[in-house]
Amino acid sequence: MASALAASGEDSLIARYFRPLATDPGAFNLDDDAAVLKPSGDDIVVTTDAVVEGVHFLSGDPPETIARKALRVNLSDLAAKGATPSGFVLTLALRAVDDIWLKPFAEALGQDATHFRCPLLGGDTVSTPGPLMVSITAFGRVPSGGMTRRSGAAAGDRVFVSGTIGDATLGLQILTRGKVADAVARDLKGRDFLIERYRVPQPRLALADIVREHASAAMDVSDGLAGDLAKLCNVCGVSAAIDIPSIPLSAAADDLVSRQVVGVETLIAGGDDYEILCTVPERSAASFAQKARLAGVQVSCIGGVVAGSALPKFIDRDGAELALQQLSYSHF
Amino acid sequence: MASALAASGEDSLIARYFRPLATDPGAFNLDDDAAVLKPSGDDIVVTTDAVVEGVHFLSGDPPETIARKALRVNLSDLAAKGATPSGFVLTLALRAVDDIWLKPFAEALGQDATHFRCPLLGGDTVSTPGPLMVSITAFGRVPSGGMTRRSGAAAGDRVFVSGTIGDATLGLQILTRGKVADAVARDLKGRDFLIERYRVPQPRLALADIVREHASAAMDVSDGLAGDLAKLCNVCGVSAAIDIPSIPLSAAADDLVSRQVVGVETLIAGGDDYEILCTVPERSAASFAQKARLAGVQVSCIGGVVAGSALPKFIDRDGAELALQQLSYSHF
Prior knowledge:
2 copies of one chain form a homodimer. The first copy, chain A, is of the alpha+beta class. Chain A has 2 domains: 3-142, CATH 3.30.1330.10; 158-315, Alpha-Beta Complex (Phosphoribosyl-aminoimidazole Synthetase, Chain A, domain 2). Chain A is built from 11 helices and 11 strands. Chain A has helices at residues 9-18, 63-80, 99-115, 167-175, 179-183, 188-199, 208-214, 225-236, 251-258, 264-269, 282-294, and strands at residues 35-37, 43-52, 84-94, 120-127, 133-142, 158-162, 217-221, 239-243, 275-280, 299-306, 313-315. In chain A, the strands form 2 sheets. Chain A has a 6-stranded mixed beta sheet, sandwiched between helices. In chain A, strands 2-5-3-4 form a 4-stranded mixed beta sheet. In chain A, strand 3 (84-94), helix 3 and strand 4 form a beta-alpha-beta unit. In chain A, helix 2 runs parallel beside helix 3 (99-115) and helix 4 crosses helix 6. The N and C termini of chain A lie far apart (51 Å). The interface between A and B is large, with 87 and 86 residues. Strand 1 (35-37) of chain A pairs antiparallel with strand 2 (43-52) of chain B, so a sheet runs across the interface.
């Protein structure tokens, strides 16, 4: 009997591409059916997010960026919860084993796993007749009881976001060739920047401890600032007043708004930012902003939490409230 | 602004169908971006398995059985690792929100979660243009360092399996209307039994502690007994000799073999058994079998571990080795 019979295609692809990523002793070299997370006294924070071809990334996206996005959307959740990454498990649904695709996918995933100190612990590789899907469950650690919740914001707290808002949705619009694509046709640098923001989120792990120590509530902005802020306020039983000119925009996004190619509502209702949205009590706001700056991450105060159960208001330069047709991306 | 804008379709379906399943305090009522596993001094065992429409279940399968199978294939892994379930996270990729489908799916998942004491901790619901997919990461607990590994079998150990082998692959063949379907056309009881074995695995959690206390190595049989035993032996650096007449068959499977509708090789190379395969040192074999009986789970000794690196041999009643064309199901 040929010994090749012993190793199925699935086992062989796991050995070839993913074993090198399983550097944690609890991964048992991917030779077992399960992994082990050792107790440390810390709480283990668990988050799970999937990316689907044609929904979260485009068919033509490079395997490297698909891998990075799949992991980073989960790391972004950990950062918003104040957690330090400790590992992840991966479910990969593939139409076929394509080495040309798998090799750069696994290499990029491994680079990110190393960079963010979040090793692969285990996984499942399945065939699908449908779109490629990468589902990741990631683990992080926080001191017992210390996870930053989505609830906890109180009237008077300041509202902060990290990074810049709206770049990713512009990047997606460029890739899907709408009017934004035409508008940046001659600005290759801006074009590439916006596409990269869509394809490769930057999980704000450098903020994790600072968020945990300062924020009253936090989440990551994944479906759109307006909708995600509404969710946070809803859980907290509060509302918010946001000052539109304070919303941080990249130079590329600002240019498109100035030229009236897109309105600001496109940016605040668009998805895929993967920035941290948090509320900070007024007395801690200066310390929060200072520590974030020292950690090298831009944070911007965009408004305040107010009492009430109304949807958050977005106020423009003239004091008028922006009417939003849509708050965020919804899958259904 | 209509307040309906605040709740996206995704949030509303999570609230309606899945919040009732999130009974663990660490699930935060599904109101947060992450869940928390509290430290207990035990190791946390992590396993992840996905089921895909058209691959692990059929398009026409009832939502109830899809839900149960998705959770149970993971619980089966926990049982084989000697772990007690403590919770799971769910990724559900859906083409659309179909209440007629989601209601029974969530209810059955909730029933199993309650029955197996494995509450929903969190999840992600995404849209897909492709097949339905349910990816679950499940958590269990074992005393520190106590997880039963896939490695550890030594020459002389006895090889055991729980339950009966080959029913599920026959059930699949009935559903896909091959010769097995014709052969059971008049045996409705046998037909229903085999289909149920395909659709609703029985995770052998009653064996978890007994496996952990007795087995030198264990895994669950998910891709086929022959292939999974080969994997186990390969990790352990041993081989095995299996006595075919000792392989436990259900009455329905035995009938089909006796009537020569299928050969035994179909049963031992077919997938979806979700039974426990383990090796037990000879001195503990009697105790293992007795305790399993007391726990109400049938276990059968089907052979022994032998030295060497050859593929496991399957020996028939006449002492001849069965030639296997295929060891197990492979996705690729």
